[in-house]
Fold these 3 entries.
Entry 1:
Amino acid sequence: TCGKVVATYTAVVTAGGAAFADVVLTDQTQCSLEAGVTDAAGQEASSKKIDVSVDRTPPTLGALVVPKKDGAQITLVAVDDINSDPSDGMQINLQLLVTGLPKGATIQLDVTDDAGKKITYSAKLDKDATDSTTATASFGVVLIPDGLKVQMQFSAADAAGNPAVKKIVAQVLSNQPEVRIVGPDSNNEGKSCKANSECGGSAICFDGL
């Protein structure tokens, strides 16, 4: 019996046991299983009833909430660093949307830098997320090392053991870009010009400096 649906299956006893083929247990329902047998003399016996929760739907690991980025490839730059200090790498207060996981479930994050060094973080859900509702998994502050192909792998499993994996390749650039004018130097105020040929050598005439 699954929900309100009752189904009966038959099998022949062989060597003291019976195997029931093609038994259908409806996903996302509570089912009860009970077997009965009748011997050659017409005597009947029944097994103890077993209750089973059926869950064949894996959880999902969705988009990043913080930083607000999504996709298999992302870029993290200086403005994403919460302490604006490139000397200690990219620090972000990481949060991830999930579905299909119970309260207290653990989501693991493995961060692998370009040299193959791995750091592992984890987050626990503080509320239930059904297969049709979302919850936010908060990892707190995590360190993402600089690199062009930093691997971020999220993984989790629901109460039934259904696994979920989300992989992201991140380009991480924690240093703020810098632009400086190096010429003319402070001792040379330059001169007025209308074309490069008036400047001499390899100098270039700019309008508006």
Entry 2:
Amino acid sequence: WSELSILLNAQLGQNSVMIYFIIGLVAAYILLPPEQDQRTLEFLWALPIRRWQVFAVKLGSAFAVLCSLVLIDHLLAWWVQSFHSNSITSSQFSWNIWWLEIAMLSGLCAIALGYGVFASFFRTFGVLALVLFWTVTSFLEFQNPSLSYLNVTNLLTVEHRGSEIILPENAWWLHSGIAVVCVILACLLWVGHAEAFVRFGERIRRGVA
């Protein structure tokens, strides 16, 4: 079990952070920009419900899909583990850790969606901003390890005190807060200024051409 657990296997935990964060960003980027490019976003805004409700439903649907992916991944890990003799009753396997991992990965996906849905409004510039943010926080962590909580890739970096798992609370509070702010700003931008941003982009493209 220690080889399959993201909290007991540090390398697996680091890889999982990157994989799920990227998946969350990709999910965010395919929510609204493609609909804007295909002019179907105007149809959604014309529905007899508030625009922010459309935004919330799409974001919530993406989060539900990502949580399902996390759950399936952990069910498969449990299924593989169950083939080992005495795996369920062994001291290594813990249902508490199993559920904690699901909760942490679901939270990571929510944070990634928050970052991504805001960055997606700016398309390529948003991707560049995210890369710059990760580069700066990684550099700060390298210069001063006490600032590791700034780096989103450390959300699954835990400490072990006997059987107790110490979570990186500062990192979770920081990035959860930033993600909430990003979602609010993204909602304001997509709901209120999406059309204006498209017209601005078209004027830039015509000017360059």
Entry 3:
Amino acid sequence: EDPFQEFIEKVLGQLRKFKKPILLGVGAIFVLVVVLVLVNYFRTGSISSDNELYAEALKIEQSAELKVDEKIEKLNQLDTKSGVSSSIKLTLASLYFEKGDISKAQEALAQFPGSRYRMINDKKELLEAELLNASGKSKEALDKISALFSDADCLLAKDYLLFRMARIQSKAEQVELAINNLKKLQEEYPSSMYRTDAQTLLNKLKK
């Protein structure tokens, strides 16, 4: 008798013996694959929708034709999700702050849970500092900005953080600290876009 044929018959016999468990296993694997495919499909669709929403919000924010109130109105009409589009609340808070409505800026910022993106979270921290300063809490504001500046992983422009600290310090009568930060900006960031503004403020503080 052919050994190969005998081997094949034994394998088939074992398969027939365990036919039911094998079919159940194959069925379970099939169901699992289908579930994973569906989850990935809906997740991809959700991410795509979230990205489109964020792009729309960014377009509104950067529009040169819309006034602040118009931007706020349009952004409030968007249905924010839990992904990157949740930063729309941060944008709203920034616009309310720009408008001078501190309470609404704080309210909008409180609705922003944070993000998995470092840059967005850094912007949140800076806006919190600005709102603290606007509420008369300059020390707390400076502590926050100083922490951002000292953080090597912070993605915000360090020259801008120095300039913001100097501005707050100058109004809080911390003239020497302000002057030091302005000089540091000029020395360490000679190509900074804030260099001219820094020199103007420096001249004012030295009078």
